[in-house]
Specification:
Order of helices and strands: HHHEEEEEEHEHEHEE
Bound molecules: 2-acetamido-2-deoxy-beta-D-glucopyranose
Distance between the termini: 83 Å
Radius of gyration: 34 Å
Strand content: 25-35%
Largest sheet: 10 strands, mixed
Low-confidence stretches: 1-29
Mean pLDDT: 81
Strand order of the largest sheet: 1-2-3-4-5-6-8-7-10-9
Number of helices: 6
Length: 255
């Protein structure tokens, strides 16, 4: 099958060669033919070799990707616990207050695809201690405000929260220096909306955290509408980080 393809062109070329050669005769026409065929077959040989090498290279790439993934996954512990601290500039309330320190424990469950964060009561107050779950499977975040003993649930915001594997890599890198380099804080404002009665719809991880506690859904408040002083009395703040910056989640009751 292949040979037919290779032999056809020289036959088709011959008349043209004869025409081009003109008066050179039969001897002149036969001589150029073998080199053409030789060049052709060596050309297809190079083609086959290149294709073979390409396939081999692709195979190697896929094999090494597989090996890398396999070893990387088996290397990751099922559960990793990090005790972390960050220094950040408190630009939200007083830019002159200077550097603050935030500590938290981060548990990362790579296989189950969720993160659990415990924020203790900060030394200088201002924000509540809390347990937070980011469930990437369900796409939900739950805050358990320990001071109020209430739970708040909202869709997971992937702009703010790093997925488990990325957070794990970040914290492993940070661990070498214990602290992140100095970072900054952003604020998000939420309003508690309806009461959640069917807790099981929130998935087993959030269920375990929030079951038996008053639980509310949260709605983001647009950045345009700032909290008024009267409302502020009804708000609680939780400062936490699951990225390279600190987030203050302000949770306000219905007013
Ligand atoms: C996620 O958070 C960022 C930063 O606060 C905000 O700009 C964005 O609107 C949020 N996205 C959702 C879907 O809530």
């Amino acid at each position: 099958m292949v040979k037919i393809g290779v032999q056809q062109p020289p036959a088709a070329l011959k008349p043209e060669k004869e025409k081009a050669a003109g008066g050179d005769g039969a001897a002149g026409a036969e001589e150029p033919a073998p080199p053409v065929q030789g060049r052709r077959s060596s050309l297809s040989g190079v083609c086959y070799l290149t294709m073979g090498l390409l396939v081999l290279l692709l195979g190697l790439v896929f094999a090494s990707m597989y090996v890398y993934r396999y070893f990387f996954i088996t290397q990751l512990p099922r559960e990793s616990v990090f005790h972390c601290g960050v220094l950040y500039e408190d630009s939200l309330y007083s830019p002159f207050r200077g550097q603050l320190e935030l500590h938290e424990d981060v548990k990362i469950y790579i296989e189950e695809n969720y993160e659990q964060i415990n924020v203790p009561l900060p030394r200088f107050g201002g924000s509540d201690p809390a347990d937070i779950i980011h469930d990437f499977q369900r796409g939900l975040t739950a805050y358990h405000d320990i001071t109020l003993d209430k739970c708040y649930v909202i869709e997971l915001n992937t702009t703010i929260v790093m997925p488990p594997r990325n957070l794990w890599e970040l914290l492993v890198n940070v661990k070498k220096g214990t602290y992140l380099p100095q970072t900054y804080i952003i604020q998000e404002e939420m309003i508690a909306t309806e009461h959640v009665s069917d807790m099981e719809q929130l998935g087993s991880f959030i269920y375990r955290l929030c079951s038996g506690k008053e639980t509310y859904r949260l709605k983001r408040r647009s950045a345009r509408r700032r909290i008024s002083r009267r409302e502020a009395g009804n708000c609680h703040r939780i400062r936490h980080f699951e990225n390279t910056f600190v987030v203050e989640t302000v949770i306000c009751g219905k007013s």
